[in-house]
Write a structure and sequence with these properties.
73% of the residues lie in helices and 1% in strands. The chain has 571 residues and is mainly α. Among the domains are: 6-196, Serine Threonine Protein Phosphatase 5, Tetratricopeptide repeat, CATH 1.25.40; 233-383, no CATH class. A hairpin with a 6-residue loop joins β1 (168-170) and β2 (177-179).
Length: 571
């Protein structure tokens, strides 16, 4: 019998202990019915708990007792973690760690994978219950442990691998490799994967305490390791590139941001994943939009060659090996044509995204894209000195936004509809400002068609502003009026309405008077609105006081103007 050939302790470890561990792992990995998702986990738990209570464990050597208990406690910790019983998982993980710590230095290496996973698992538990400091401490131990093992390998890799290796023995079936759990063994692939997870968990932990640069650093290291070891799921890796690129974009590290976006895009198969492609085109458009805004700002202030600005622009934090993407250094544009080139690149990416994100089916994405495209035109106006070209840019913005504003359901997409109407109100208001200023200064003699166009812009601005005001100021939106920014938006919009009624050109006296009365009613509306919704919430801001002052002045001036128009009409 086998018991006559090996010691009873060895026999116990290679039969009872081995069999029960395998049995528990079988149930642990066996899917359960959806209505009782943890049934098989509970079966595995019973086996493990019975093993801890077995008397034979107490009869083995101190070293093997620490090993067997360490493994069982580790598996129990995982079991409770999987069933979301975190306090019990914490308890078993700590006991397991204590058991393995009893092993001598020359033996503990064989159980490095367990210890590495224990630090990771405990770190997750602490982080999830918002004990971030201790969680990071545990992840740091896992990180240090990995660095220590890599240092050992670097000194004498052949000797280490020969002495600390997989403890596999061939079975009768040549396709199966068998491992005795109690003998341990270092799985180098598992060690590398666990370290990648350590970096990932540290990124999450730093993000929880708003240490954004640390979080980005560890996130970048995670992506780099995943790619260079070919250990990643394509979609997840690409989406993580998107998130990290967004961080670097916000930090004005535009070269790094673009590199990550191009890296993520490069791993997506060209003939599939159309939505993911569209998501990247949209992200590239937004990246270029932010870069356009930044470039124009520096162009207008003459800071294109400022060394610290250029250095930050091209800061290189993450470079991937063996990827067909080049890290391209950027230089801020020095001419309007350079700026227009960025704009054209942005527009190209957004148009590619719109081929997938059509309004019929993707309302949110479509509106986000056209609003971003509109912003691009708005930024170009900052460097445009020619009035007629500025009007052309405004008209292009109008074309982009009018279509979705008319097509979407205002009730189903209320916020988006309000945003579109508000922007259209502003666009028509700017178009009116340009034409009205030239008309009043006598810079051009407007024909009938010109006056009609100016009135058309004026009416369109009023109508879009009033749509927003009417949508917000109603019984179902009382909560919105608690937001100071919403109050400011409503008052600003109504002030433009009041002003525009007095700028509408009319022939008949009666119509002129009617428009002035509407203007005065709008100023009075603003005063009442401020008294009802702003004053009760506290002191007025300087801006709000000035608005009230202007409304008072207009309410005093307009009656006299109405009388004058009436008088002139009777002559």
């Amino acid at each position: 019998m086998a018991s006559n050939q090996i010691s009873s302790e060895e026999y116990f470890l290679s039969t009872y202990f081995q069999t029960k561990i395998e049995e528990s792992e079988y149930y642990s990995n066996l899917p359960s019915d959806e209505t009782r998702p943890y049934d098989n986990k509970y079966k595995a738990r019973k086996i493990l708990e019975a093993m801890l209570a077995a008397k034979n464990i107490e009869d083995v050597s101190a070293e093997n007792k620490a090993i067997t208990k360490g493994i069982i406690e580790y598996l129990l910790g995982l079991n409770f973690f999987d069933t979301e019983e975190n306090s019990m998982a914490d308890k078993h993980f700590l006991v397991s760690l204590e058991q393995f710590s009893q092993l001598k230095k020359d033996r503990i290496f064989y159980f490095f994978n367990y210890i590495q996973d224990l630090y990771n698992s405990l770190g997750i538990l602490y982080t999830n219950r918002e004990d971030i400091e201790n969680g990071l401490g545990l992840f740091a131990k896992a990180e240090s442990l990995y660095a220590f093992m890599k240092k050992i390998f670097s000194k004498n890799p052949v000797s280490v691998v020969n002495n600390i290796k997989h403890q596999y023995k061939p079975s009768k079936d040549a396709q199966i490799q068998f491992r005795f759990y109690h003998q341990g063994g270092l799985n180098l692939n598992r060690m590398e994967k666990s370290y990648t997870l350590t970096l990932f968990y540290m990124a999450q932990a730093y993000a929880k305490i708003s240490m954004k640069f640390k979080a980005a650093q560890y996130c970048g290291w995670t992506l780099k390791r995943q790619y260079e070891t070919n250990d990643y799921e394509m979609k997840d890796w690409a989406v993580n590139c998107l998130g990290l690129a967004e961080f670097y974009n916000a930090n004005l590290e535009f070269a790094q941001s673009k590199y990550l976006l191009m890296a993520g895009l490069s791993i997506i198969p060209e003939d599939s994943k159309k939505k993911l492609h569209a998501t990247f085109y949209m992200a590239l458009g937004q990246h270029l939009l932010e870069y356009l805004s930044y470039a124009i700002e520096k162009f207008l202030t003459g800071q294109q060659d400022e060394p610290t600005i250029v250095e930050n622009l091209n800061k290189s934090t993450i470079i991937l090996s063996n990827i067909n993407v080049e890290f391209v250094k950027l230089s801020l544009p020095k001419t309007k044509e350079d700026i227009n080139s960025i704009f054209r690149q942005m527009n190209t990416q957004f148009k590619k995204a719109l081929k997938y994100y059509e309004l019929d089916g993707y309302v949110t994405e479509y509106i986000q894209i056209v609003r971003d495209m509109s912003k691009g035109y708005k930024y170009l106006m900052l460097i445009e000195e020619d009035g007629e070209r500025s009007m052309a840019l405004l008209d292009r913005r109008r074309e982009l936004l009018e279509y979705p504003a008319k097509e979407i359901n205002p009730k189903a997409y209320e916020l988006y509809w309000q945003q579109l109407c508000l922007e259209l109100g502003e666009i028509f208001n700017q178009m009116l400002d340009y034409r009205y200023e030239r008309y009043m200064k006598g810079l051009e003699k407007m024909k009938k068609s010109g006056l009609e166009l100016m009135n058309k812009h004026c009416v369109a601005s009023i109508e879009n502003y009033e749509k927003v005001i009417g949508s917000v100021v109603n019984a179902s939106n009382k909560d919105a009026l608690d937001n100071p920014e919403t109050l400011k938006t409503i008052i600003t919009a109504k002030f433009s309405v009041a002003k525009n009624y007095s700028r509408l050109q009319a022939k008949e006296t009666k119509e002129k008077v009617n428009l002035l009365k509407k203007s005065m009613e709008s100023y009075k509306w603003i005063k009442d609105f401020i008294n009802e919704h702003v004053l009760p919430k506290g002191a007025l801001s300087y801006e709000m006081r000035e608005t009230l002052k202007n409304c008072d002045e207009m309410c005093q001036l307009l009656p006299a103007k109405i009388d004058r128009v009436n008088f002139e009409g009777q002559m």
